[in-house]
Amino acid sequence: MTEPSSPLVARDITLGYGRSSIIDGLNVSIPAGSVTTIIGPNGCGKSTLLRGFGRLLRTREGEILLHGAPIDGMRTRDIARRVAILPQAPSAPEGLTVAELVSRGRHPHQSWARQWSSDDEAEIGAALALTGMTHLAGRPIDELSGGQRQRAWIAMTLAQGTEILLLDEPTTYLDLAHAVDVLDLVDRLNDELGRTVLMVLHDLNLAARYSDRIIVMKEGRVVTVGTPQETITVEMLREVFGLSATVMIDDESGAPTVIPHSTRRATRIPVD
Amino acid sequence: MKTLSELAPRAPVPEPRDGAGSPRPLRIGSFSRLWLPRRAVILVVLVAVLLLAAGISLATGDYPVPLFSVPDVLLGGGDPLDRFTILQLRAPRTAIGVLVGVALGFAGALTQTVTRNPIASPDILGVSAGAGVGALTVIVLGSNTIVGTVVAVPAAALAGGLIAAVLVYTLAWRGGVDGFRLILVGIAINAVLVALTTWMLAGARIAQATEATVWLTGSLEGRTWEQFWPVTVAVGLFSALSIVVVRSLPALMLGDDSAAALGVRVGASKTVLLIIAVGLTAFSVSAAGPIGFVAFVAPQIALRVTGAAAPPLLISALMGACLVTASDLIARTLLPSPLPVGIVTTAIGGPFLIYLIIRTNRRAAA
Asked: Domain ABC transporter, which positions (chain A) (predicted)?
């Protein structure tokens, strides 16, 4: 499973909180320059795995390799220059403005003397522009809508300027149109700037539409890894999600599309 | 690796804050900062207010000296009687007031930012009371020697403050420190320490108990240069130490996960920052007793004046100095009989705490 071109590799890792372990002996590798999405039912360890890759949670056993080197022994700052992670439901203090939040993304590149270089300024400006937040730069985060808030945090993660982006449910709080905007941006960062993206998504159709690779997880294990066509199947949905559904192939994108069956609703549709 | 700017090459310069004056980049060689003109104006105003209050404080007393001859005396001139009155009798009091205010304002800004909680300041969480118990132990045992004042009292205050801080933090710890639990535990420990203080006073001899009672309300009365030096050295050392670690504060304000993701060593940074705050508080207590609410109020006023998301450190420190100096002046002159400075600051701080708790509750309920 380990490929030489993988910037991130998990080797026999065990992760957990307190005494209980959520992930036990997991192996997976993330291909360079790809968009990989972790899917799975609630509580299957998706976010835990993402946190492990960003070293927000240390492995109890096994190791995570960043370009072949174990991240456990690395300096936090060196990791932050190469891997940016957007945690789930982050919170900003009351009154913090969008520009102030986004500028914190430059922290790993700054030093005591250098705290507002022209590089910092250019990257912050670009991150704001790419997320469509420039006109809101001076506004406090707590006055924004959920969608705008989420984009502000994504902009901060982008300003970090890392080759790897870890995004924990970047489309939470977003309506479908804004979710598509964010994922289009992710696609652009991957395609035009060569960023490697690993994210957790709940929406299977969006996962199928925007990913090169899908990692399917259940109960702390990796069930299967592959392209959306290989992984998002009627059998997988039944076994992993306990969901009865039809999978159709979207004509335009060729991505699988999940149409869930309802045992109740079908009987209520009037037939004439 | 390609940068973001290549995708959005001519992005406009961001405005970090609406209505705060345009922020300006300051770049000299490889040194760069973003500075806010409005904060610079506030800083200058505070320095002016502080100089004026300190000047009036030096000029006022049983033997009044004209305000305009104060600078003359400080620069080495003036009438010999004026010189003696100002330099030997009044200057230690004023200087200690300024330093204690700086230490408390700075310490409060640090703890409020690190814990992301406006109520979490050393005076409310029992650190001042802990330092008070430490210092009181030495005073009650009798420390009318120079070694006692310069070494034993500050050392005991530091030990007491650290023990109280560790105790509060450990009891509030449950796989992490939740802001609300920290405050409840802090208030409880504070109450225990205050009770301990009363018990110690009850057992002390009359003379020492009287001295200790005045000291415990936070007083600048009868300060001499002996009390000035420990707090000066402490403020100098801890400020120097903080220059390096405060850089992690903007990231820490976003919570532990985000700070770690930005490359901050969260545990280590928080520990050092809190030790600095406890140290500054303890030394200020050893010099002037626990002057209530300054560490809590000064950063909150600084926050409101600047409109920032967290109390700016330098402005909080200066605000603390202005608050202590002005309160001492009020305590000495405007009130019918001279009172310790701590009474005035508590009179300002108490209502402010109630206001903040009510506001926080409303927000939580909304």
From this structure: 8-244
